[in-house]
Amino acid sequence: MNRNYLGHLGFTMAEVLITLGIIGIVAAMTLPTLVQNNKNKEVEAKLKKIYSVMNQAILMSENDNGPKEYWTFSCGTDESGNINSEECKKGIEKFFLPYLKFTKTENFFHSLGYNTAIYFSDGSVLVGKINKNGVNGLDFFFYPNGKNFNKDTFGTTGENGNIIRVDSGITFFAFRFSPSLDSESNKFHYKKGFEPYKWDLKELTVEKMTANSSYACKKDATIKVWCTALIQLNNWQIPKDYPFKVK
Question: Strand 173-177 relative to strand 113-119: parallel, antiparallel, unpaired?
Answer without folding.
Answer: unpaired
